[in-house]
Amino acid sequence: MIFSRNIFLYFLLVLLFACSPKNKLSKIEQSNIELNNSNKEDSIALKLIAPYKNKMKDEMEEVLIVSENEAVKGEPEGTLGNVVADIVLKQGNIYCERGHTEKADICLLNNGGLRTPLPKGAITTGKIFELMPFENELVILTLSGKKTLSMFNYIAFQSGMPMAGAKMTIKKGKATNILINNIAIDTSRSYRVITSDYLSNGGDKMNFFSKPEKTEAINHKIRDGIIEYLRAENKKGNTLKPSLDGRIKFE
Question: What's the predicted TM-score (pTM) here?
Answer without folding.
Answer: 0.80
